[in-house]
Amino acid sequence: MKHKALQICLIIGLFLLAGCQEEKLQERLDDDQPKITIDTFSLTETNKGKKVYTLDAVRARVYDEIIKVDSVEIRFYDREEVEFSVLYAPAGILNTKTRNILVGDSVVVLTNDSTKLYTDSLFWQNDSQKILTDCPVTIIKQDGTVIEGRGLRADPYL
What we know:
Blueprint: H1 2-32, E1 36-47, E2 50-62, E3 66-77, E4 83-95, E5 101-111, E6 116-125, E7 130-140, E8 146-154
Antiparallel strand pairs: 1-2, 2-3, 3-4, 4-5, 5-6, 6-7, 7-8
């Protein structure tokens, strides 16, 4: 009888232990899972009712304060809400609290005056309205002038 009771206690203990491990595993899986996944995502940032930029993406995965986006296109607007540059990137991360954006993996920026910028990643600092990177940068002007260097701090007009 004691032996059977011991077996039952061990079996119950194993189930409880397995349940705890399963819960911990599920918590780890849940941490990596988005709260929401959105196909054909679009977001518009405004300042005093005026459009600053629009961000469009093929897919967005929404976490607590982060939105990860795929196939990003960001259109920047001037004070009159006229589009003056477009940024393209395969992937990006938007912080919903600071509204900063990090884009990466072969970033291209095209301006209205036909200037082209190429780099590996760019950081949009929303409060200062600046584009920043410490990666190698190539800028090609309309007249064919090529500027190469490492790092950049610019407004969206470049």
